[in-house]
Amino acid sequence: MSDFMNKKMLEFIRNKAIHFILLMLAVAIFSFILLEMSPIDPVNAYLKEASVTAAQRAMLEQYWGVGQPLTTKIFNWLSMVLTGNLGVSLIYRVPVVEVIGQKFMASLVLLAVSWIISGIIGIVLGILAGKNKDSWIDRAVKTYCYILQSAPSFWIGMLLIIIFAVQLGWFPVGLGVPISTLNSNATIWQWLSCMVLPALTLSLVGVAPIALYTRNELVDVLSSDYVLFAKARGEKGWNLIERQTLRNILLPAITLQFLSFSELFGGAVLVEQVFSYPGLGQTAVQAGLQSDVPLLLAIVLISAVFVFAGNLIADILYYFVDPRIKENEQIDK
């Protein structure tokens, strides 16, 4: 049994490593080609209408590979990426790696808080709705989820700003720290107060899918034969939910939550822009608007790694935690 599991684990790691390499290669090449086909001129974006001599412009064109074949450009860029050199940001005038390091940490904290809150609230609401199927609680939860699913994240963010920042004045309108305060001088409470509304927006948007999925899973489990048998033995209420259903619905619900990494990252781009939150999403918008090609390509690669990590964790949960998959493989073997 141990040799069998070790072999399956090695196969799993090998397959995932191959998928990761192919994914990153495809994302890198297609992203580079799309930006190369766009009307962005890296030399003009770098100069920002500054006056230079013809010789200086020729040097810049040589640096950016203007006039070189596309395959040569892709090969040169991939060679740089493999050595950890992602270029220099045209906006910040520092290595892209430094910009990504600073912005990604801010986004990672925001995404982690939002992901945890939306997961907990979504699962609790789904269980409440499933246990009280067709009651007013079930209808209220479903209505709430349908409204959230049809509302764009930026609209919810603006609504929260109007209510909690403008009308009530409980939280700052945006930014990562209060205005006129340096990042190094901000207290943890100032930092947290600035993150409340962006995190709340992302959490509210992410609640609907996990709540509806958990509700439907619980309804299916409650109608299964073994739950009906448990009811016949006298089990009921929350005791029945805890003993007979939670284990069956939590694993797929948590897995679904990990699979939502791509939606969470996409939502963060809009939310960070609405709140002027200094994260990777807002930086991606700035890089696109100001034609910062090296930074934009690096953000695309980082987002691909982030989404792949979420899918990988979901696969691990399914593969190594769900006993039904192991049993089926052993039967097939």
Structural write-up:
The chain is mainly α. 79% of the residues lie in helices and 0% in strands. It is built from 14 helices and no strands. The chain has helices at residues 2-37, 42-47, 54-64, 70-82, 96-131, 136-150, 153-167, 188-222, 225-232, 237-259, 261-275, 280-289, 293-321, 323-332. The longest helix is centred in the first third of the chain and has 36 residues, at 2-37. It is globular, with a radius of gyration of 25 Å. The chain starts with a helix and ends with a helix.
Structural class: mainly alpha
Task: Tally the helices.
Answer: 14
N/C terminus separation:
12 Å
Query: How would a crystallographer describe the biggest sheet?
Result: none
The 3D shape can be described as: globular
Question: Average pLDDT value?
Answer: 79
What letter string, H or E per element, gives the SSE order? HHHHHHHHHHHHHH
Give the number of DSSP strands: 0
Query: What does the radius of gyration come to?
Result: 25 Å
Helix content: over 70%
- Low-pLDDT ranges: none
Q: How much of the polypeptide forms β-strand, as a percent range? A: under 5%
